[in-house]
Write a structure and sequence with these properties.
Order of helices and strands: EHHEEEEEHEEHEEEEEEEHEEH
Strand content: 25-35%
Shape: elongated
CATH superfamily of the largest domain: Pseudouridine synthase
CATH topology of the largest domain: Pseudouridine synthase
Number of helices: 6
Number of domains: 3
Protein backbone atom coordinates (compact mmCIF):
# COMPACT_ATOMS: atom_id res chain seq x y z
CA UNK A 1 0.00 0.00 0.00
CA UNK A 2 1.29 3.46 -0.94
CA UNK A 3 0.09 6.85 0.31
CA UNK A 4 0.02 9.82 -2.05
CA UNK A 5 -0.62 13.45 -1.22
CA UNK A 6 -1.91 16.12 -3.61
CA UNK A 7 -2.56 19.85 -3.15
CA UNK A 8 -5.70 21.19 -4.85
CA UNK A 9 -4.85 23.57 -7.70
CA UNK A 10 -6.97 26.70 -8.22
CA UNK A 11 -8.48 25.51 -11.51
CA UNK A 12 -9.70 22.27 -9.87
CA UNK A 13 -11.31 24.01 -6.91
CA UNK A 14 -14.93 22.91 -6.58
CA UNK A 15 -14.72 19.51 -8.32
CA UNK A 16 -15.71 16.29 -6.58
CA UNK A 17 -12.88 14.52 -4.78
CA UNK A 18 -12.88 11.45 -7.05
CA UNK A 19 -12.76 13.66 -10.15
CA UNK A 20 -9.85 15.58 -8.62
CA UNK A 21 -7.93 12.37 -7.96
CA UNK A 22 -8.71 11.14 -11.47
CA UNK A 23 -6.74 14.09 -12.86
CA UNK A 24 -3.65 13.18 -10.84
CA UNK A 25 -3.94 9.40 -11.10
CA UNK A 26 -4.71 9.13 -14.80
CA UNK A 27 -4.38 5.36 -14.98
CA UNK A 28 -7.28 4.99 -12.52
CA UNK A 29 -10.91 5.39 -13.55
CA UNK A 30 -13.21 7.77 -11.70
CA UNK A 31 -15.35 4.77 -10.70
CA UNK A 32 -12.38 3.02 -9.06
CA UNK A 33 -11.38 6.17 -7.18
CA UNK A 34 -14.99 6.81 -6.11
CA UNK A 35 -15.02 3.35 -4.58
CA UNK A 36 -11.76 4.06 -2.72
CA UNK A 37 -13.26 7.23 -1.27
CA UNK A 38 -16.22 5.19 -0.04
CA UNK A 39 -13.88 2.66 1.51
CA UNK A 40 -12.28 5.35 3.67
CA UNK A 41 -8.96 5.40 1.83
CA UNK A 42 -9.08 9.14 1.06
CA UNK A 43 -8.74 12.11 3.41
CA UNK A 44 -9.03 15.87 2.91
CA UNK A 45 -6.93 17.93 5.31
CA UNK A 46 -6.50 14.78 7.45
CA UNK A 47 -10.26 14.18 7.76
CA UNK A 48 -12.03 11.24 6.06
CA UNK A 49 -13.50 12.28 2.70
CA UNK A 50 -17.13 11.72 1.75
CA UNK A 51 -17.98 10.32 -1.68
CA UNK A 52 -19.85 13.48 -2.72
CA UNK A 53 -17.40 15.92 -1.13
CA UNK A 54 -15.82 18.65 -3.22
CA UNK A 55 -12.28 19.89 -2.88
CA UNK A 56 -11.13 23.49 -2.69
CA UNK A 57 -7.98 25.40 -3.47
CA UNK A 58 -5.02 24.60 -1.24
CA UNK A 59 -6.58 21.58 0.47
CA UNK A 60 -4.42 18.48 1.04
CA UNK A 61 -5.91 15.33 -0.46
CA UNK A 62 -4.31 12.03 0.56
CA UNK A 63 -5.09 8.56 -0.78
CA UNK A 64 -3.94 5.07 0.20
CA UNK A 65 -3.72 3.03 -3.00
CA UNK A 66 -4.63 -0.57 -2.21
CA UNK A 67 -5.38 -1.57 -5.80
CA UNK A 68 -3.41 -1.38 -9.04
CA UNK A 69 -4.54 0.90 -11.90
CA UNK A 70 -7.52 -0.31 -13.92
CA UNK A 71 -6.61 1.26 -17.27
CA UNK A 72 -2.84 0.87 -17.29
CA UNK A 73 -1.01 1.11 -20.58
CA UNK A 74 1.05 -2.01 -21.06
CA UNK A 75 4.66 -0.99 -20.35
CA UNK A 76 7.04 -2.17 -23.08
CA UNK A 77 10.83 -2.04 -23.12
CA UNK A 78 11.25 -0.15 -26.40
CA UNK A 79 14.41 1.94 -26.80
CA UNK A 80 13.77 5.69 -26.71
CA UNK A 81 16.03 8.51 -27.88
CA UNK A 82 15.29 11.02 -25.10
CA UNK A 83 16.80 14.40 -25.92
CA UNK A 84 15.43 16.20 -22.84
CA UNK A 85 13.74 15.22 -19.59
CA UNK A 86 12.64 16.91 -16.37
CA UNK A 87 10.01 16.04 -13.71
CA UNK A 88 7.18 17.31 -15.95
CA UNK A 89 7.95 16.28 -19.53
CA UNK A 90 10.16 14.47 -22.03
CA UNK A 91 11.21 15.40 -25.56
CA UNK A 92 11.81 12.32 -27.69
CA UNK A 93 13.34 11.87 -31.14
CA UNK A 94 10.79 9.40 -32.49
CA UNK A 95 11.93 6.81 -35.01
CA UNK A 96 9.95 5.83 -38.08
CA UNK A 97 7.34 3.13 -37.54
CA UNK A 98 6.30 4.08 -34.00
CA UNK A 99 2.67 5.11 -33.45
CA UNK A 100 2.17 7.81 -30.81
CA UNK A 101 -0.46 5.93 -28.81
CA UNK A 102 -2.61 2.78 -29.08
CA UNK A 103 -5.13 3.09 -31.90
CA UNK A 104 -6.85 0.68 -34.27
CA UNK A 105 -4.60 -2.28 -35.07
CA UNK A 106 -1.77 -0.75 -33.03
CA UNK A 107 -2.63 -1.60 -29.44
CA UNK A 108 0.95 -2.33 -28.46
CA UNK A 109 4.44 -1.34 -29.53
CA UNK A 110 3.56 2.37 -29.46
CA UNK A 111 5.43 5.39 -28.16
CA UNK A 112 3.03 5.56 -25.20
CA UNK A 113 3.79 1.95 -24.25
CA UNK A 114 7.51 2.73 -24.33
CA UNK A 115 7.11 5.89 -22.25
CA UNK A 116 4.92 4.04 -19.72
CA UNK A 117 7.79 1.60 -19.16
CA UNK A 118 10.16 4.55 -18.72
CA UNK A 119 7.86 6.29 -16.23
CA UNK A 120 7.30 3.11 -14.22
CA UNK A 121 11.03 3.06 -13.51
CA UNK A 122 10.68 6.49 -11.88
CA UNK A 123 7.82 5.75 -9.48
CA UNK A 124 7.37 3.42 -6.51
CA UNK A 125 4.45 1.63 -8.18
CA UNK A 126 3.49 0.90 -11.76
CA UNK A 127 0.98 3.21 -13.40
CA UNK A 128 1.21 6.16 -11.00
CA UNK A 129 2.47 8.28 -13.90
CA UNK A 130 0.84 8.13 -17.34
CA UNK A 131 2.23 9.48 -20.64
CA UNK A 132 0.42 12.56 -21.90
CA UNK A 133 0.46 12.92 -25.69
CA UNK A 134 -0.07 16.60 -26.58
CA UNK A 135 0.70 16.46 -30.32
CA UNK A 136 1.29 13.71 -32.84
CA UNK A 137 3.52 12.61 -35.67
CA UNK A 138 2.42 10.22 -38.40
CA UNK A 139 3.68 6.68 -37.87
CA UNK A 140 6.12 6.92 -40.79
CA UNK A 141 7.31 10.44 -39.89
CA UNK A 142 10.37 10.68 -37.66
CA UNK A 143 11.48 13.47 -35.35
CA UNK A 144 10.80 15.48 -32.23
CA UNK A 145 7.74 14.97 -30.06
CA UNK A 146 7.00 16.12 -26.50
CA UNK A 147 5.26 13.92 -23.92
CA UNK A 148 4.12 15.11 -20.49
CA UNK A 149 4.24 13.26 -17.17
CA UNK A 150 1.63 15.06 -15.05
CA UNK A 151 -1.89 16.34 -15.58
CA UNK A 152 -1.15 20.07 -15.24
CA UNK A 153 1.68 20.03 -17.79
CA UNK A 154 -0.54 18.01 -20.11
CA UNK A 155 -3.41 20.48 -19.73
CA UNK A 156 -1.28 23.57 -20.32
CA UNK A 157 0.80 22.20 -23.20
CA UNK A 158 -2.26 20.73 -24.91
CA UNK A 159 -3.88 24.16 -24.84
CA UNK A 160 -0.71 25.73 -26.28
CA UNK A 161 -0.57 23.25 -29.15
CA UNK A 162 -4.27 23.68 -29.89
CA UNK A 163 -3.72 27.45 -30.11
CA UNK A 164 -0.64 26.99 -32.33
CA UNK A 165 1.78 28.68 -29.94
CA UNK A 166 4.71 26.22 -30.22
CA UNK A 167 6.96 26.47 -33.27
CA UNK A 168 7.30 23.27 -35.32
CA UNK A 169 9.55 22.90 -38.37
CA UNK A 170 9.98 19.87 -40.60
CA UNK A 171 12.51 18.88 -43.24
CA UNK A 172 11.14 17.16 -46.31
CA UNK A 173 12.54 15.76 -49.52
CA UNK A 174 10.09 16.59 -52.29
CA UNK A 175 9.80 15.51 -55.88
CA UNK A 176 11.15 17.90 -58.51
CA UNK A 177 12.41 21.48 -58.26
CA UNK A 178 9.96 24.17 -57.12
CA UNK A 179 9.72 27.42 -59.10
CA UNK A 180 10.04 29.41 -55.87
CA UNK A 181 12.50 29.94 -53.03
CA UNK A 182 9.85 30.65 -50.40
CA UNK A 183 6.11 30.11 -50.49
CA UNK A 184 3.15 30.31 -48.14
CA UNK A 185 0.63 27.52 -48.74
CA UNK A 186 -2.69 28.72 -47.36
CA UNK A 187 -5.17 26.02 -48.36
CA UNK A 188 -7.93 24.63 -46.14
CA UNK A 189 -7.70 20.90 -45.45
CA UNK A 190 -10.53 18.47 -44.80
CA UNK A 191 -11.41 14.82 -45.09
CA UNK A 192 -11.24 13.43 -48.59
CA UNK A 193 -14.74 12.62 -49.93
CA UNK A 194 -15.68 8.96 -49.72
CA UNK A 195 -17.11 6.70 -47.07
CA UNK A 196 -14.71 5.96 -44.19
CA UNK A 197 -11.86 7.77 -45.91
CA UNK A 198 -8.88 8.43 -43.63
CA UNK A 199 -7.09 10.54 -46.22
CA UNK A 200 -7.14 14.32 -46.32
CA UNK A 201 -7.59 16.79 -49.16
CA UNK A 202 -7.05 20.46 -49.95
CA UNK A 203 -9.68 20.39 -52.71
CA UNK A 204 -12.87 22.49 -52.46
CA UNK A 205 -15.01 19.35 -52.01
CA UNK A 206 -13.22 18.14 -48.88
CA UNK A 207 -15.46 17.49 -45.90
CA UNK A 208 -15.25 19.57 -42.73
CA UNK A 209 -12.40 21.68 -44.11
CA UNK A 210 -10.44 23.88 -41.73
CA UNK A 211 -7.92 26.60 -42.48
CA UNK A 212 -4.31 25.45 -42.79
CA UNK A 213 -1.06 27.30 -43.41
CA UNK A 214 2.42 25.96 -44.17
CA UNK A 215 5.45 28.17 -44.89
CA UNK A 216 7.91 26.43 -47.25
CA UNK A 217 11.56 27.41 -47.80
CA UNK A 218 13.77 25.62 -50.35
CA UNK A 219 17.05 24.62 -48.69
CA UNK A 220 18.71 22.63 -51.49
CA UNK A 221 17.99 21.68 -55.10
CA UNK A 222 19.20 18.30 -56.31
CA UNK A 223 17.63 17.74 -59.72
CA UNK A 224 14.99 15.06 -59.27
CA UNK A 225 14.29 16.16 -55.72
CA UNK A 226 14.66 19.17 -53.41
CA UNK A 227 15.15 19.62 -49.70
CA UNK A 228 12.64 22.00 -48.13
CA UNK A 229 11.92 23.25 -44.64
CA UNK A 230 8.29 23.58 -43.63
CA UNK A 231 7.05 25.73 -40.78
CA UNK A 232 3.60 24.78 -39.50
CA UNK A 233 1.17 27.46 -38.38
CA UNK A 234 -1.70 24.99 -37.95
CA UNK A 235 -1.82 21.30 -37.12
CA UNK A 236 -4.16 19.59 -39.55
CA UNK A 237 -3.89 15.86 -40.16
CA UNK A 238 -1.28 15.09 -42.87
CA UNK A 239 -0.96 18.85 -43.42
CA UNK A 240 2.55 19.06 -44.88
CA UNK A 241 2.08 16.02 -47.10
CA UNK A 242 -1.24 17.28 -48.45
CA UNK A 243 -0.01 20.85 -49.02
CA UNK A 244 3.20 19.85 -50.80
CA UNK A 245 1.40 17.34 -52.97
CA UNK A 246 -1.29 19.88 -53.86
CA UNK A 247 1.29 22.32 -55.30
CA UNK A 248 2.81 19.54 -57.40
CA UNK A 249 5.75 18.47 -55.21
CA UNK A 250 4.79 15.39 -53.16
CA UNK A 251 7.00 14.18 -50.35
CA UNK A 252 9.43 11.57 -51.66
CA UNK A 253 8.24 8.09 -50.66
CA UNK A 254 4.69 9.18 -49.79
CA UNK A 255 2.50 6.15 -50.37
CA UNK A 256 -0.78 8.03 -50.70
CA UNK A 257 -0.51 11.65 -51.77
CA UNK A 258 0.49 12.31 -55.39
CA UNK A 259 0.94 15.54 -57.33
CA UNK A 260 -1.96 18.04 -57.47
CA UNK A 261 -4.23 16.10 -55.13
CA UNK A 262 -4.08 12.71 -56.82
CA UNK A 263 -4.12 9.57 -54.68
CA UNK A 264 -1.45 7.00 -55.45
CA UNK A 265 -3.11 4.18 -53.53
CA UNK A 266 -5.95 3.82 -51.08
CA UNK A 267 -5.35 2.79 -47.47
CA UNK A 268 -5.84 -0.92 -47.01
CA UNK A 269 -8.49 -2.24 -44.70
CA UNK A 270 -9.94 -5.68 -43.79
CA UNK A 271 -7.17 -6.33 -41.30
CA UNK A 272 -4.35 -6.04 -43.82
CA UNK A 273 -1.22 -4.51 -42.31
CA UNK A 274 -0.25 -1.06 -43.65
CA UNK A 275 3.02 -0.76 -45.50
CA UNK A 276 6.23 -0.02 -43.61
CA UNK A 277 7.47 2.26 -46.38
CA UNK A 278 8.69 5.54 -44.90
CA UNK A 279 8.29 8.96 -46.46
CA UNK A 280 10.93 11.70 -46.36
CA UNK A 281 9.44 13.87 -43.63
CA UNK A 282 11.23 14.62 -40.36
CA UNK A 283 10.23 16.88 -37.44
CA UNK A 284 13.54 18.71 -37.15
CA UNK A 285 12.84 21.66 -34.85
CA UNK A 286 10.51 22.12 -31.87
CA UNK A 287 10.19 25.18 -29.67
CA UNK A 288 7.67 25.76 -26.88
CA UNK A 289 7.22 27.38 -23.48
CA UNK A 290 7.79 25.15 -20.48
CA UNK A 291 4.33 24.62 -18.95
CA UNK A 292 5.56 25.15 -15.38
CA UNK A 293 8.43 27.65 -15.61
CA UNK A 294 7.37 29.58 -18.71
CA UNK A 295 10.90 29.48 -20.15
CA UNK A 296 11.40 28.77 -23.86
CA UNK A 297 12.74 25.34 -24.75
CA UNK A 298 14.09 24.71 -28.24
CA UNK A 299 15.31 21.44 -29.72
CA UNK A 300 16.70 20.37 -33.08
CA UNK A 301 17.15 16.97 -34.69
CA UNK A 302 18.90 15.80 -37.83
CA UNK A 303 17.08 13.35 -40.12
CA UNK A 304 18.23 9.73 -39.81
CA UNK A 305 20.06 7.84 -42.55
CA UNK A 306 16.90 6.24 -44.00
CA UNK A 307 15.52 9.75 -44.69
CA UNK A 308 18.47 10.59 -46.96
CA UNK A 309 18.39 7.16 -48.58
CA UNK A 310 15.05 8.11 -50.11
CA UNK A 311 16.89 10.57 -52.36
CA UNK A 312 18.23 7.51 -54.19
CA UNK A 313 14.63 6.45 -54.80
CA UNK A 314 13.97 9.84 -56.34
CA UNK A 315 16.97 9.48 -58.68
CA UNK A 316 15.76 6.02 -59.68
CA UNK A 317 12.37 7.41 -60.61
Amino acid sequence: MHRYLFIVEPYLSGVRVDSFLCRHLRNYTSWRLHRMVGAGLVSIDDLPAETDQRVHRGQRVAIHLLEPPDKLLTPEAIALDIVYEDPWLLVIDKPVGLVAHPVGDYQSGTLSNAVQEHLDQQSVAKGILRPGIVHRLDRMTSGLIVVTKDHLSHRLLSADFQEGRPSKSYLALIEGEPDFEERVIDLAIGQRPGENSVLMSAKPGARRSRSARTDVVVRQRCGNYSLVECLLHTGRNHQIRVHLAEIGHPVVGDEYYGAHGTIRSAPRFDGEEPTDKRHALHASRLSFQHPIFGTTLEFTSQPPADFWELSQLSHAE
